[in-house]
Design a protein that fits this description.
Layout lengths: L4 E5 L6 E6 L3 E5 L2 E6 L2 E6 L5 E6 L8 E3 L2 E5 L8 E5 L6
Antiparallel strand pairs: 1-2, 3-4, 4-5, 5-6, 7-8, 8-9
Length: 93
């Protein structure tokens, strides 16, 4: 295991669930892993690693933060200087 990959592990066993190219900053909520890397923020299914969606937000410094049912991503030093907000999926039983 090394730089440039995003890994998910089973919390109970420590077994690797999946790995994919990436390695940016992450946040996890409601079974979704959010990763800010390069120009994009992407969402992945935490159990399977399947990409759910990606959005281009601009370069540099966009670490996802989860608060009150939303994931926020600052555009960093992009040309528009915006703060993006994305709704979280509903928690399922």
């Amino acid at each position: 295991m090394g730089a440039g990959k995003l890994y998910a592990f089973d919390a109970a066993t420590g077994d690797k669930l999946w790995a994919r190219p990436g390695g940016g900053t992450t946040a996890v909520a409601n079974g979704v892993v959010y990763e800010g890397s390069g120009f994009d923020v992407c969402a992945y299914d935490a159990l399977l690693g399947a990409r759910l969606w990606c959005a281009t937000v601009g370069p540099y410094g966009h670490s996802p933060v989860v608060v009150n049912g939303m994931v926020y991503v600052a555009a960093g030093y992009s040309l528009d200087g915006r703060l993006y907000a994305f709704g979280l999926p509903s928690q399922t039983a």
